[in-house]
Design brief:
Length: about 110
């Protein structure tokens, strides 16, 4: 890990919801702290209902983490474009987040500790 990024096990149980649906719950979340940015909760892919997610063509690059793929959330009432990201092959310094998903802080997406 770099000095700029800190990763630790997020304490407690975490939930993510969108469009009235629970996308996942976990006690195995990771909390990533990056510089002065707000902490981000990363959910293990195994704890997310992947049937609600559609991979998109959007790719972004972070010099501290690598290339991120994106997913839209699709449920009965709405589609939230590019609301989720994942570092499927992160740089070695943050390899812990491989196989995890993070959610943009949007009005239609709620990440909360329960």
């Amino acid at each position: 890990m770099t000095d700029y990024i800190k990763i630790r096990k997020a304490p407690g149980k975490w939930c993510v919801r969108s469009g009235g649906a629970i996308l996942g719950e976990t006690t195995n979340a990771l909390e990533l702290l990056e510089g002065d940015l707000a902490p981000v909760i990363y959910f293990p892919r195994a704890d997310i209902a992947m049937a609600f997610l559609d991979k998109t063509d959007k790719l972004t690059h972070c010099p501290h983490k690598g290339d991120a793929t994106h997913y839209s959330i699709v449920n009965k009432s709405s589609v939230t474009q590019n609301a989720v990201w994942s570092y499927e092959d992160p740089i070695p310094a943050v390899a812990e987040i491989k196989g995890y998903l993070a959610f943009y802080p949007l009005d239609s997406v709620k990440v909360e500790q329960i």
